[in-house]
Give the backbone structure.
Amino acid sequence: MKITQERMRRAFGFIPTVTFADGVCHLIGGFGNCGVVETDDGLILFDISMKPLGRKIFRDLREVTNKPIKYIIYSHGHFDHCFGFDPIINEIKEKGWDMPEVIAHENCIRRFEKYRMLDKYHIWLNQQQFASLKNPVEVSAHETLDPTIIIHGNDKYIFEFGGYKFEIYPEWGETDDAIWLWMPEKSVIFAGDLMVSHFPNVGNPYKVQRYPKHWALAMERMMEKNAEYLVPGHGELIEGKEKVKEVLSITAEAMYFVHDEIVKRMNEGKWFEQIFHEMIELFPDKFKNHPYLLPMYGCYEFAIHAVYRLYHGWYDTGNPTDLYPARTSDIAKEFLKVADGIKFLEQAKKNVDQGNLQLALHLLDVIINGSEAENALLLEALTLKSKVLKQKAETETSFIASNIINNGAILLQPKIKELKKKLKSQNH
Ligand SMILES: [Zn+2]
């Protein structure tokens, strides 16, 4: 299935507000979404998006209802779900209303603590993950709207509000602090990022461990509710019992598939590289082409890493050479003593011509990492690497993967420019 620009926009939250469940619920689109339950006693907000989108979400909310916000529930502690609180707090102060109850899992509090400890690191890595965005992603957990009602362990939490019953279930999936909300009277599930409307973001290369099998179990627990509506953390409202069930079931199936096939191969004594390439060969078309499993943000390749990492240590090649490896630059220098850099460049070009872009990159890296002289050969290698990366990024649909690859090309530009200038001045 083709990923169009329009589909991408919708997945990233550019969707009009939808009112459903007899006018009681609203979905306000954003990155991520904000789910709203409107009762006679006030509002429940399920997620409040990220800080830069706080005003947008709030404006859209106030277009559909003026009732006070009584509960805020964090589906999990990621920055795109619980940091858009400024306009909400400002309104409460202005109107002299009571502060809302804020519900989250206990691990969400630990997450905020971690974000505070690693604040600069998270800014740095999010700038890479979101490199293609115009405004840099500056995330800080130094200001948080902290939970007042805390969910512990696997305990479900049930409460009544505005004449309705609400059930909150903790899960592991994208995170260990995930909770989802079930509203039985209106048959609505608010799923958070357990449903992102494309391939689960289960193996993000920058982030800590995620949980594919638990993700499948969460999907199954949601399926038991036989819900009419499912509000995803990202993407459009999923409507109709059959559709909701189908989307949950294919996601569970894909998570079980990647989990179980890797476990099987680990039990056969295979190392990561072999498992990875076998899994790529094995990927069934029914997952590859399913509209809710498209690799738009995360992807199947990343999920393979997630499962392996869940059960395996960092020594993943089975080759003792890799236990205490030499520096990449020292290895490359040795290669260049054996064969001239020009041979690596020629071979790289051959591979580019044959469409073997990945092999070309490995060959170019020998010159780039091993060259001691700043010469025309190095310039050519850098320029070709930048071209190859751009070419790869164009065909890469996963937002995270294409950012990593494209950002690699962008980071080469100052080096290329500087070297060009240097060589030019030497020639004069
Ligand atoms: Zn999210």
